[in-house]
Design brief:
single chain; 434 residues; alpha/beta; Pantoate--beta-alanine Ligase, Chain: A,domain 2; six-stranded parallel barrel; five-stranded antiparallel β-sheet; 3 helices; 28 strands
Length: 434
């Protein structure tokens, strides 16, 4: 009978222990569930932050002028916000991800590499002037530099950065000058300096990487080659001209205005003293010939961007820029006139006193010649480059920092420089699971 007195207290103690254990298990289970939800939210925030930084890197690599948006961007049920810190060619992106008030942060250090060959950005034109087989400078002709961002070329805007390179040879004859670095690939025997000729500096074993090492060909865009020829009365073309079967002719002392657009011509001829005004963004595919006769002018207005494709691979193209003819890019921006020569063995000659202002010429399988007293402002890449008596090329150093999207030298990415990942900074697993 005495044992019966212990049963009730023991039962009560057992029940209390069971309740305590049960409550502990429930508490632990609830805490673990809360921790699991917290870890889940933290992981979601991390991956949202990582998505934001991957997006920023992709946008910046495709377009160096892109910058992160100032506000939050919704993604994956939360949001991310990206900031950047620019230190020269190094850019540090920081992305903050947020999911249900859980926050994670990811940083990415990126760097834009120089173009192969040490030329930096600028695609085909960022390393200076280039004649793949040769550069020849005759009597009193010279190459120097200026910066179009500071205004027109002149005594206050003239520099010694007319860098000139060739994988073959560079020849300077009587009183010819390169105010910049003369770059040849295979040694001093490939740089010839004649009587009175000078160079500011020389790099006699220069390593030309792509795009200059293997000049990419010009490929005329298919949407241009498939265009029909414009016809007489096209509303985009006004003035005194004739247009038949793709042949555009402007007579002596006549004027024509092209308001902009894409065009395919078989041939363009501007006769003596004629003027062509281009007042809007345009692309021309000119199949067989362009002739600018004596004193004729092409005048580009309204800060328009003009891209000309001359000839095509496997075809013959005949360009003539006669005495005193002028291509006048009134904006003074070097990228507003871009000429790509697709045909082989074409010789583009700027005749006596001819001038082309603030533009670029890319002619990987053709020659560019500047005749007596002619001038060119901008950048030239060609098979051979020749300057005759008193001719001059003024290399625009602004081209070092400009990438033209249609430039064949951009196709491999190494020409203008490529943005690459240097280092990620992410929370480690232990931090992310706290």
């Amino acid at each position: 009978m005495k044992n019966k007195g212990y049963l009730l207290p023991m039962a009560i103690i057992f029940i209390l222990i069971s309740l305590i254990m049960g409550m502990g298990i429930l508490y632990l289970g609830g805490s673990e569930q809360i921790a699991a939800i917290k870890r889940y939210h933290q992981e979601r925030a991390f991956y949202i932050a990582e998505a934001g930084i991957n997006r920023a890197f992709a946008y910046k690599k495709a377009n160096e002028s892109w910058h992160p948006e100032p506000g939050q961007i919704s993604f994956g049920g939360g949001w991310f916000q990206v900031t950047e810190s620019i230190q020269g060619e190094t850019i540090i992106f920081t992305s903050t991800g947020n999911y249900k008030n859980s926050v994670a942060q990811v940083s990415l250090i990126t760097y834009r590499t120089p173009g192969s060959g040490g030329g930096g950005r600028g695609g085909s034109f960022g390393q200076g002037l280039f004649g793949n087989q040769s550069v020849t400078i005759y009597n009193n002709a010279w190459i120097d530099s200026y910066d179009s961002r500071l205004g027109p070329y002149g005594p206050q805007n003239r520099g010694n950065h007319g860098d000139t390179g060739s994988k073959g040879s560079i020849y300077l004859y009587n009183n010819a000058h390169i105010y910049g670095t003369a770059m040849v690939e295979n040694g001093p025997q490939y740089l010839t300096i004649g009587n009175g000729a000078t160079v500011s500096d020389s790099d006699l074993y220069h390593n030309f990487g792509d795009p200059l090492n293997n000049l990419p060909p010009v490929v005329v865009p298919q949407d241009l080659t498939s265009l029909p020829y414009p016809v007489q009365g096209d509303p985009r073309i006004t003035g005194n001209y004739t247009l038949s079967n793709g042949i555009l002719t402007v007579g002596n002392n006549k004027t024509i205005t092209i308001s902009g657009g894409d065009f395919r011509f078989k041939k363009i001829t501007l006769n003596n003293n004629s003027i062509m005004y281009i007042t809007g963004n345009s692309r021309f595919y000119i199949e067989s010939a362009i002739t600018l006769s004596n004193n004729s002018n092409v005048i580009i207005q309204n800060n328009s961007t003009i891209i000309w494709y001359l000839g095509n691979q496997g075809t013959t193209f005949t360009p003539t820029l006669a005495n005193n003819s002028v291509i006048n890019n009134t904006s003074s921006a070097p990228g507003n006139l871009r000429i790509y020569v697709a045909s082989n063995n074409t010789n583009i000659t700027l005749a006596n006193n001819a001038m082309a202002f603030n533009g670029v010429i890319y002619a990987p399988t053709s020659s560019v010649t500047l005749a007596n007293n002619s001038q060119f402002f901008g950048g030239i890449v060609s098979k051979t480059l020749t300057l005759v008596n008193n001719a001059s090329v003024h290399y625009d150093i602004a081209l070092r920092d400009i990438n033209f999207p249609e430039d064949p030298g951009n196709s491999g990415g190494t020409g203008p420089g490529t943005r690459v990942i240097v280092r990620w900074t992410k929370p480690d697993w232990s931090q992310r699971l706290q």
